[in-house]
């Protein structure tokens, strides 16, 4: 009976009577893979136009087996980081990429996955078919120029250097949020425009101009196309 390979971490499952003289080496490699899955960390520079598929090499350390992965790089297209189908695993993911207006999705080969937000940290799990969200740690991020943001963004907008447009995510889903604060107390002098990106804002098919000094608000996508994005607080 020959050796086999485990489904998720691709450990070498040794058959009785196999691996004479190499049993200890294979066992040690299996232990290192388990250590990687429990506490391993790696940095992954995302291919900015093609994305990446995490590797799961049989009987060897490989980046898809790490517990914690920090994603870096500047995107030049909408891209995915892919976990192969059938792999079941939990990840802690830090999105350290500059999205440059593009989307970054952590997903299985055939699933829809989770759209990541620039700067945020996540607990994600693959059930073998799709990647699901366990939890998300959001961060506030300062910007001073036009940008398209991702769902969950928390933006400290500083218009001291001039007015600009903050563009909402395209094709939002119900319950997704974007929060904005007037970091420099300048919206009354240099207004912030919220670009609707194809969705209504507060029942209107028009961009939103914010010219109130010190404004702070959260927009939630209602799931209703007519209402579109609406205010979480009033």
Query: What sequence of helices (H) and strands (E) makes up the elements?
Result: EEHEEEEEEEEEEEEEEEEEE
Which consecutive residue ranges, at least 5 long each, have pLDDT under 50?
none
Biggest sheet descriptor: 5 strands, mixed
Overall mean confidence score, pLDDT: 96
Description of the structure:
The structure is a single chain. The chain has 234 residues and is mainly beta. The mean pLDDT is 96. Strands 3-5-7-10-11 form a 5-stranded mixed beta sheet, with no helix packed on it. It has 1 helix and 20 strands. The chain folds into 2 domains: 38-137, no CATH class; 140-231, gp9 (Jelly Rolls). Helices cover 7% and strands 37% of the residues. The protein is elongated, with a radius of gyration of 22 Å. Strand 8 (104-108) and strand 9 (114-115) form a beta hairpin. It starts with a strand and ends with a strand.
Task: Briefly say what this structure is.
It contains one helix and 20 strands. It is mainly β and 234 residues long. The chain folds into two domains: 38-137, no CATH class; 140-231, gp9 (Jelly Rolls, Sandwich), CATH 2.60.120.640.
């Amino acid at each position: 009976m020959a050796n086999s390979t485990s489904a998720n971490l691709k450990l070498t499952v040794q058959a009785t009577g196999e691996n004479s003289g190499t049993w200890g080496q294979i066992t040690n490699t299996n232990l290192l893979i388990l250590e990687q899955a429990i506490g391993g960390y790696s940095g992954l520079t995302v291919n900015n136009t093609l994305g990446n598929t995490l590797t799961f090499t049989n009987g060897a350390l490989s980046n898809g087996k790490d517990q914690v992965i920090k994603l870096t790089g500047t995107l030049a297209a909408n891209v995915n980081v892919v976990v192969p189908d059938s792999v079941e695993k939990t990840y802690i993911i830090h999105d350290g990429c500059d999205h440059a207006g593009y989307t970054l999705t952590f997903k299985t080969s055939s699933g829809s996955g989770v759209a990541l937000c620039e700067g945020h940290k996540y607990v994600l799990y693959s059930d073998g078919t799709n990647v699901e969200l366990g939890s998300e740690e959001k961060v506030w991020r300062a910007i001073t120029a036009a940008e398209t943001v991702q769902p969950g963004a928390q933006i400290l907008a500083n218009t001291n250097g001039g007015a600009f447009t903050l563009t909402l995510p395209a094709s939002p889903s119900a319950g997704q949020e974007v929060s904005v604060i007037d970091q420099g107390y300048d919206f009354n002098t240099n207004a912030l425009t919220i670009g609707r990106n194809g969705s209504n804002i507060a029942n209107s098919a028009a961009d939103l101009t914010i010219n109130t000094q010190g404004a702070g608000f959260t927009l939630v996508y209602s799931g209703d196309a007519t209402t579109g994005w609406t205010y979480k607080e009033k």
